[in-house]
Design brief:
Order of helices and strands: EEHHHEHEHHE
Radius of gyration: 15 Å
Shape: globular
Number of strands: 5
Structural class: alpha/beta
Helix content: 25-40%
Oligomer: single chain
Strand content: 15-25%
Strand order of the largest sheet: 1-3-2-4-5
């Protein structure tokens, strides 16, 4: 489970000037594709463009945009991980990526199961001091 930054292009030597973090969470992977491939394909248009990377920055240029990649085929597979575990894994990935900018506004977008996963993560965050800052800085939740 990981966050993959798609905008701006990751550069460890660059100063982080983002004013908002946007994290997109893909939905169910019924065809059991590679997790990363599924995550990227979820957000590609018919023209093959990855719109969170190629188009969204034109509207929100001062943003840092990431895709959350996780095993969403577990419903059909042998994973023993519970949905609650997956929600905490999402929170931990967000926490780690925002250690130096915990108070930056956060926009979360989920597709299908990804939206439900975000909702569960926010419920968990509200009840857990370790992740409370994620709950309090979430500016918007978009489920598609």
């Amino acid at each position: 489970m990981s966050l993959r930054q798609v905008y701006p292009k990751p550069n460890p030597e660059a100063v982080d000037l983002a004013k908002v973090d946007i994290i997109l969470v893909h939905g169910l992977n019924p065809k059991n594709k590679d997790g990363e491939e599924h995550a990227f394909n979820t957000w590609k248009g018919k023209n093959g463009r990855l719109w969170p990377r190629d188009d969204l920055p034109k509207k929100i240029p001062d943003s840092r945009i990431s895709l959350y990649i996780y095993d969403s085929s577990a419903v059909y597979g042998s994973s023993q991980s519970t949905f609650m575990d997956k929600a905490y894994e999402l929170l931990e990935s967000i926490r780690c990526s925002r250690e130096d900018c915990e108070q930056r506004p956060l926009i979360l977008m989920g597709h299908s199961l990804g939206g439900i996963l975000i909702e569960q993560a926010l419920i968990n965050a509200r009840q857990d001091k370790t992740y409370e800052h994620i709950y309090s800085t979430t500016y918007d939740l978009i489920c598609v």
